[in-house]
Design a protein that fits this description.
The structure is a homodimer. Chain A is mainly alpha-helical. The first copy, chain A, is built from 28 helices and eight strands. Chain A folds into two domains: 16-422, no CATH class; 436-585, Transcription Regulator spoIIAA. In chain A, the strands form two sheets. Chain A has a six-stranded mixed β-sheet. The longest helix of chain A is centred in the middle third of the chain and has 32 residues, at 262-293. At the A-B interface, helix 14, helix 19, helix 20, helix 21 and helix 22 of A face helix 15, helix 20, helix 21, helix 22 and helix 23 of B. Chains A, B: Keywords: Membrane, Transmembrane, Transmembrane helix.
Chain lengths: 587, 587
Amino acid sequence: MLRRIFPFLTWSRHYTRADLSNDLIAAAVVTIMLIPQGMAYAMLAGLPPQAGLYGAMLPLLLYAAFGTSRALAVGPVAVVALMTAAAAGAVAQTGTEGYHLAALWLALLSGGMMLALGLFRLGFVANFLSHPVISGFITAAGILIAASQLRHILGADVSGKTLPHLVPSLLSNLGQTSIPTVVLSAVVLGFLFWSRAGLARLLQGLGFSAPLAKLLGKTALLVAVVTSTFVVWIFGLDSRGVAVLGDVPRGLPAFGLPAFDAGLIQMLLAPAAMIAIVGYVESISIAQTLAAKKRQSVDPDRELVALGLANLGAGVSNAMPVTGGLSRSIVNYDAGAATPAAGAMTAISIAMALMVLTPFMYFLPRATLAAIIIVAVLSLLDFRALPRIWAYSRADGAAMAATMLFTVLLGVEQGLIAGVGLSLALFLYRTSRPHMAVLGQVPGTEHFRNIDRHDVVTDPQVFSIRVDESLYFPNARALEDRVVQALSDRPALRHVVLQCAAVNYIDASALESLESVNERLHTAGVQFHLSEVKGPVMDRLARSNFLRELTGQIFLTQFDAMIALAPGLTSACRNRDRCETRRASGH
Amino acid sequence: MLRRIFPFLTWSRHYTRADLSNDLIAAAVVTIMLIPQGMAYAMLAGLPPQAGLYGAMLPLLLYAAFGTSRALAVGPVAVVALMTAAAAGAVAQTGTEGYHLAALWLALLSGGMMLALGLFRLGFVANFLSHPVISGFITAAGILIAASQLRHILGADVSGKTLPHLVPSLLSNLGQTSIPTVVLSAVVLGFLFWSRAGLARLLQGLGFSAPLAKLLGKTALLVAVVTSTFVVWIFGLDSRGVAVLGDVPRGLPAFGLPAFDAGLIQMLLAPAAMIAIVGYVESISIAQTLAAKKRQSVDPDRELVALGLANLGAGVSNAMPVTGGLSRSIVNYDAGAATPAAGAMTAISIAMALMVLTPFMYFLPRATLAAIIIVAVLSLLDFRALPRIWAYSRADGAAMAATMLFTVLLGVEQGLIAGVGLSLALFLYRTSRPHMAVLGQVPGTEHFRNIDRHDVVTDPQVFSIRVDESLYFPNARALEDRVVQALSDRPALRHVVLQCAAVNYIDASALESLESVNERLHTAGVQFHLSEVKGPVMDRLARSNFLRELTGQIFLTQFDAMIALAPGLTSACRNRDRCETRRASGH
């Protein structure tokens, strides 16, 4: 029981010296990435840099204690930082007390929601965010994130949360561009792009072993940060228009609940729910992908609990909303992280950095952090997904396009709502119009196929229909209409057979429709039969009056039905020529 | 083409003398019911009595020209009148100009919506009102309607649109009860209840033929109206506290568009949509039931067009929203209405009544109209439906109970929204958790069944799973989780087979999940196979990269898959004893 609640009780019992050394290496590499990324994502969220570093401490310890993934690296991530900025920016001015308070409450609320979803095993709600909607959302969010960093890259006052605000702002403020900032940005961006593949290759060329070169390649962020900070300090670029980070408070965060404000909390409920769902979906797919590589598994509901506690931890330690991040998790996995202890060690390293390194961050140029953000999010952009998904399914493509458009034009929350709303509407639309096939017998066999697609024989007295969908209220009437239509089209009709092989469920509306079909057919002197009804469906029907009122029979197979209802047809069909004749007369 | 638009061009070509006489008789009987009912439902809607009579003129002519049902009797009906009262009462005080204006705009807006839904063939949206929700709504509306008539039955000032308002009002105003009104109400109610079966029986006893006695039995409403009016006039009861109808304007209505008010229209959009959907659903089910009895059919989309035009007609003739009514349609059918011309003749009779009879309506007691309403709606109440539906399906029962409770406690619109919302939520919940069965082979056969339910054999290297639902975003991850779980549970696993016989559709999210399953299994050295994939599903998969990336094969049948992947098992199974051994070792 205790072990179910605290997964670390399981893995810590077999913790070996090799595990320790693997976890230490992984923690070191992740820390080197996390210090600049944490500060960069805090900047993206409109928060002071330390909020990102605090988000890499207590949340990581909590996740290490409760999480079930061995490789997931929790902390500030770009998309959640953007959503935090959008939500906090809607209730307060960036940089104000109220803004920071909103960010803390977003962490607490989304954490509380994740925790509740996990405890009540409601993680399935995340499934309503379909893959195309997530994919479109992340690409659109990536565009917004990259665009929002133009102000730091150019050193100009470009602002706005959506493209219709960002673009005019960019055009009208382009004149303010600071040349030293642009040059610095260009150098850092160029270095970071090159380093993604080039640095490891260079190190390998210098004689390092391939795995070590790959690990050292991950220090590119650190190299960029240290070098650019040094350059700004040496050449006094901060007095020539290059914006620097300034004072970062030294030491650990103050712990405690943020000020309570009922009105604020009410306004943040909806965005917090979206942050909870998006954060969870991002995190769980990373965790599952990495776990599968080692034939391990993660428990979605316990992941929700762990992420929820991590966010609650962020909320009480002056941090920002967190979740599992893709790039750091892959690095963590590649570096050999053996257990969640790697995350705890990362948290301790970040704490030490906060106590020792913050004075050296004064001259860190904001342009470097912006470049780090841009390089990180460009890997999120996937423009080929839209045509691929559109080609596979128009409905999914439309939902994805709507998500992207609404996100870049109106904002992240509007984009998510539009995407989820449209995908649900299209889903309901599809189930409301099920595929139905009128069946005929493939001559000489026991098989029955769609009369529109196959060369089959039918009997004018028997109308056999197959519905390729469960029968429930959105489509109940469709079957009713189809059968009533057949009744008025076919004067010779004596029997209607509903083939139920693809029907997994019949709800009360569909049951009433079937009763009504039975009643209407009865009034017109026609019998109603079912064939190939599944066990669970039959169990449920037995609880109603339907089976007693049914004018016809329940046949085990469609062939049994035809033997009983159209014996002439089935015997005739052993002779193919006569079948053809019957068929012709049957139309 | 013209005939598709004007169905009367079809039936009028073969119109016989017999048709004419049948239609005339039906029109006469329906008119006799419609005059008191029209005035009564106008009173229920909070409108002057002539609004109900006007609603039985132009709308009937328009329906006769465009409708496809030969028996449907259009006009004011109780549930729509209640919804009109609720919507108009929310924007204006009963009896004011603004109130009547709101009722006219409700007719125009709901008519326009029906017309648009019909022209764009969007009638399927009505399917989202599930049968249990409609049934619960109509019973709850019946309770509210009956309760709202207590003021007229008692002659006391009882008001309120929901039970929490009606009940206290009833208790506090019970002292005002007018004894002559209560006595009159009791006599009329008693007579109407008795007449439902007793009058026809009495007439038959007096020597009338059975069909004629049944027809004359329908005059009970007229008898009640005429007699009670006469009694009030003779005994001067109007001066003793019995409320009478007063002046009803003589002659035809003024035609024309009501005053335009953008703010009012915006507030009425949502209730008008609900009136359109509820009105359509009530009407189409009556029309289809009556049509099926004669092996005729009605076209749902053209019915929407005809009902839409009827309501637009109501809106421009000072009437009230209309739809097809159950009781009058049955009378119309029983009386032998042969064509929609019966409706047109009814409209003409009503027009004549308006020109001649209105002066005689002055002393018509409101209590009589209230009694007519109560007797009509009591037949709508169906309290046995809830336990029956609950026994069949908890989800449907819950949606029905929610609809009833919200309707009587909070109002008609809230009830409908709660019912539709809950049924959609439960539907989505169910599809998000599909039934999945791990399959084993029934020894000695080609059949595969759930290992939890049947005595089957399995191979530890092969994991076969069947999903009893189409694969789409709400449930895509469920399959992924299940397979990933199997991967970590079964160290010997070499093959996973997904049996797709019940999968009618795979959307882009599910496709990505399958790709991810394929990828994860591949990483772990396990092959992924599909079996029994349906044609349309296969066509769609062929448009993606999935079939190229699939590590395993697509098998026509599950048996083919097992022959290829576990040949030892399938051959061993011809000997039942060895199968048992395999089975034991496979667990």
